[in-house]
TrEMBL record:
Residues 70-232 form the Glycosyl transferase family domain. It catalyses: [GlcNAc-(1->4)-Mur2Ac(oyl-L-Ala-gamma-D-Glu-L-Lys-D-Ala-D-Ala)](n)-di-trans,octa-cis-undecaprenyl diphosphate + beta-D-GlcNAc-(1->4)-Mur2Ac(oyl-L-Ala-gamma-D-Glu-L-Lys-D-Ala-D-Ala)-di-trans,octa-cis-undecaprenyl diphosphate = [GlcNAc-(1->4)-Mur2Ac(oyl-L-Ala-gamma-D-Glu-L-Lys-D-Ala-D-Ala)](n+1)-di-trans,octa-cis-undecaprenyl diphosphate + di-trans,octa-cis-undecaprenyl diphosphate + H(+). It comes from Hymenobacter lapidiphilus. The gene is mtgA. Keywords: Cell inner membrane, Cell membrane, Cell shape, Cell wall biogenesis/degradation, Glycosyltransferase, Membrane, Peptidoglycan synthesis, Transferase, Transmembrane, Transmembrane helix. Its EC number is 2.4.99.28. GO terms for molecular function: pentosyltransferase activity; peptidoglycan glycosyltransferase activity. NCBIfam families: mono_pep_trsgly. It is a single-pass membrane protein. This is Biosynthetic peptidoglycan transglycosylase. The keyword DNA repair does not apply. InterPro entries: Glyco_trans_51, Lysozyme-like_dom_sf, PBP_transglycosylase, Pep_trsgly. Pathway: Cell wall biogenesis; peptidoglycan biosynthesis.
Amino acid sequence: MRDFKQIARRTGRIALQVLAVAFLTSVAWVLLYRWVRPPATWLMLDRRAHAPVGLGYQGIREDNRYIQYDFKSLAEVSPELPLALVAAEDQRFLLHYGFDGDALLKAAKSNLSGTKQLRGGSTITQQVAKNVFLWQGRSYVRKAAEAYFTLLIELLWDKRRIMEMYLNVAEMGDCIFGAEAASQAYFGKPAARLSAAEAALLAGVLPNPLRFRASNPGPVARSKQRRVLRRMRALRGTEYVRELMGK
């Protein structure tokens, strides 16, 4: 009996030490990326190794799967793009602390109503958490890790850095990551020169950039673009993100 108690205490101490190391490592990792650009993300490595397979995917490269990724500061990107991303993805981005209860409730009601297309309620911060720090897949463990990293990001970064990271690591086409790579690939210009219409198109196809392409947009992509442009105007244009841009 005594041996069992000693083993239990020793196991408990080891478990606490492992948890402490994991916590400190995660905090250091998030803090590092507050100032340092990620060399790559898990999704970039996966795309480099394997071509994605899915119904309706377009522009998939079978060969030469090199990653197009060029990290730019927020000052080097047209202010139309962060505005478009807020309008398309997370209109309460400047107000919430990582989670948007209203969006989650609306998504749950929409999905429970039996609509064919599932609706997500993730904020931009949540998407940064899963894009930068987590593996691909769906599980309760991953969702818990996403919530944990979302909290860390909101505590340790400001909104400017969150947006800067998001528009640089988001997948915008097969092997194309971030605003600069997408702008060069689709419009032949740097991200600093994106127009409102081009930014709206990129943001509109962002939820599924492998099905909807900014380079050759069809009716659905154009419809998404018009919807984003309307929301951008409703948000008072780039004035809305002036705080974010630091201007």
